[in-house]
Amino acid sequence: MAQVSSHIAENFSITDGGPMYRILDRLERGKDRRGRVAFRAAVAVAITWVPLLILSLMHGSAWGSQMRIPFLRDFAVSARLLIAVPILILAESKIDRRWRTLVLEFLRSELVDEKTLPAFEAVLKRTMRWRNAVLPEVLLAAVAIFVSIFVFETELLMSGTSNWHSTESGGVSTAGWWFSLFCTPIFRFLLLRWFWRMFLWTSVLWSVSRLNLFLVATHADLAAGLGFLSEGQKAFSPIAFAGGAVIAAEVGNAIAYQGQALASLKFPMIAYGVLAILFLVAPLLVVAPVLLKVKRKALLDYGAQVTIHNQLFERKWIQHGRSEGETLLGNPDARSLADLGTSFAIVRQMRIVPMDKPTLIALAISAALPMLPVVLYATPATVLIRATLKMLG
């Protein structure tokens, strides 16, 4: 079977489209892809965190002891606007290239042949039509703004503590209004847009996996040839890190300014880690029914072949049906018996979800890494020293 090529697959993109992309694209003509993404990240910081700093300086709430949490000592707002928002934007380029690489891998590995190519391209075209649709992004923006208007918020774990969001009389400061009605909707929109993009990628995997792919149960990747999809999920490590930074900063505020213990805040940290990994692994779950079907069929087919070969081997070599002078050592019968046994063992070990341990570990580390400074900050030095000595000893 000859490898096929596709102009549509070579230009496939999930992030380069939609009304927001088209607006920004007109404003950024002349810049390359990386330059555009970096420019957008810088602009996002300039219209969110910088105005908050200016407004806080004007109202005397940027630093000082007049309030419990001045602006420049608020871990949560800095993590959200200086770390998470830029990462949610900067990650677009890397993740989109990885998605395109995975799509092309279906062709390069000859999972898709000439007969299947038209249906494969139809899936990609449909996905990019959905990507370019106006309604999804409008709804995402509406949700982000609606929640901010009708559910005023500061930070998740900041309540009952004087902070830069409030005025001395107990009202909402100008910086507080800017944060709630402008900064938070931008952050929430960027986050929701990644949920939409992940849905688009999941739909691609769902539809493509149900085409007539040339899947081989004895493939060494233990996923019938779809093991490369697991490697692709590692590209989402920055997204997991960004979310972890926000949660860690919220927990840091609660510990530093509200006197809460780390033990009482373990649940949101653990819950985030679990939910982040599930969210990033979820797209691969849609191919499980297909791989399960391939595995079941292969177990029957290879099982029958192994049984027949073993019976022939038993009659010839064990029940003395071989020719006189013929030896077992180096005989093709023994080698074919070992090969069939190895193939059957691979089929039995085949995973129905193309996710491997290195990818899970990479995602878990990305989600947990921002929590490390908080844990170190909240853990007494004597406990850390004893733990270090125990590991060294």
Structure description:
The model has no long low-confidence stretch (mean pLDDT 85). The protein is flat and about 95 Å long. With 393 residues, it is mainly α.
The DSSP helix count reads 15
Structure classification = mainly alpha
The helix content is: 55-70%
Instruction: Give the beta-strand count.
Output: 0
Order of helices and strands: HHHHHHHHHHHHHHH
Tally of separate domains? 2
Radius of gyration: 28 Å
> What's the main sheet like?
none
Estimate the strand proportion: under 5%
General shape: flat
Distance between the termini: 58 Å
The chain-level mean pLDDT equals: 85
Are there runs of 5+ residues with pLDDT below 50, and where? none
Relevant terms:
single chain, about 400 residues, flat, mainly alpha, 2 domains
Q: What layout of secondary structure does this protein have?
A:
Elements: H1 7-10, H2 19-27, H3 33-58, H4 75-108, H5 117-132, H6 134-150, H7 174-209, H8 228-233, H9 237-258, H10 266-285, H11 288-318, H12 332-349, H13 357-368, H14 371-378, H15 381-392
Helix pairs in contact: 3-4, 3-7, 4-7, 4-9, 5-7, 6-7, 7-10, 9-10, 9-13, 9-14, 10-13, 11-12
Q: How would you summarize this macromolecular structure in one to three sentences?
A:
By secondary structure, the chain is mostly helical. It is 69% helix and 0% strand. The chain is flat and about 95 Å long.
